[in-house]
Amino acid sequence: MNxxxxxxxxxxxxxxxxxxxxxxxxxLRDAGFEVIYTxxxxxxxxxxxxxxxxxxxxxxxxxxxxxxxxxxxxxxxxVAAQGQENLLVVVGGIIPAQDHQPLKDLGVAEIFGPGTxxxxxxxxxxxxxxxxxxxxxxxx
Amino acid sequence: xxxSLTELRTGNPxxxxxxxxxxxxxxxxxxxxxxxxxxxxxKGQIIGITGPPGSxxxxxxxxxxxxxxxxxxxxALLAVDxxxxxxxxxxxxxxxxxxxxxxxxxxxxxxxxxxxxxxALSDVxxxxxxxxxxxxxxxxxxxxVGAGQNEHEIRTLAHTTVLVDAPGQxxxxxxxxxxxxxxxxxxxxxxxxxxxxQRAAQxxxxxxxxxxxxxxxAWQVPVLTTDALSGSGxxxxxxxxxxHFTHVNDTGQRQAQDxxxxxxxxxxxxxxxxxxxxxxxxxxxxxxxxxxxVHRQQLDPHSxxxxxxxxxxxxxxxxx
Lengths: 140, 320
Known about the structure:
The complex is a heterodimer. By secondary structure, chain A is of the alpha/beta class. Chain A is built from 5 helices and 5 strands, in the order βαβαβαβαβα. Chain B has 12 helices and 8 strands. Chain B is globular, with a radius of gyration of 22 Å. The termini of chain B are far apart. Chain B is of the alpha/beta class. The chains are: A alpha/beta, B alpha/beta. At the A-B interface, helix 1, strand 2 and helix 2 of A face helix 2, strand 3 and strand 4 of B.
């Protein structure tokens, strides 16, 4: 049996604009994912904690505030420290082009800017996140 | 990487989350894990929280859990939300109410999707409860999808079932319908600050009194009002939840509940195993032929089913 991919959609920091996050949540739900949305104004600690307890396959961070170079590295540090080094992390929102490579160097798998279709995002996640083997491991 | 039982028993949070994922997959490794944990289960109180969408189940649970956390309980919550029958996807939204519990080391919250189960619980909820109970979580809360009717399953799973309702959800006839008030041990009218809450509580009390005359030692279903946001009434609710557990323990109902829960799980697994064997007897071809006849109205559904059932191995003749 094919098991749904679990995705946590997280909105870190002082940014209350979550229409984008909700569109992605709804879109990924309709694409057959199990989506957990934890709401606005989450701290990196809250996000890492939810990713740990929910044992998600994907962490999708939505950020429009400009604080991504502070918040995203902190979240990546925390998830790695709790043993989720292989968690697929994607970022969406307003991320200037010059910050893309630095974020990818830190471990972000992909960055989705304005205009990205749900299909593109869903296809990317599926391509990187297949069904776990019998021991529960996802391919790196 | 297999999940280490030692890590699980010492409270490793990553091991716990992976164990729940393992039982969600319902594979051979999950069976091994559950077999190892089963002897340790059966200690904690399992509490079902049910009620219509928007009545405040998640918010009330957050209020309860934050109180229990400060009282050093090891608390777990399984929050079940529906899977789309069309796409197989789900939006699990209960966790959004759990803000502020992150630093509570003894609190575990997990969102589960129903994944094709017909009721308000996923099949794996039963096994996830076993894992948490075996690891010493007490209580284990189970929040059902917000359906409100036809939720008998939660009554079998839980020792104590709490119905959470809110004012403005319909007139007194709604509370008369079968399957709502009769499955719960405690009724909560949440949002007590809203107009109509006292009236809703009064109606629930009246409906409960219209039932059969209480027998001696029977549990009297209390009707409480709460305001989950301010925390009003939450301490009393917790007292009544624990009082009910004491009641089922003292009256011997606990054993019957535990037996019924185990029976339900075994029966369901046998049915699932049987459903997988079925195509060996009723082959897809035979099924398609019968369905075509039904479609052409040469055969009615009952007769078609009966003729397909003839394909099953027949029991030895009873008469000799």
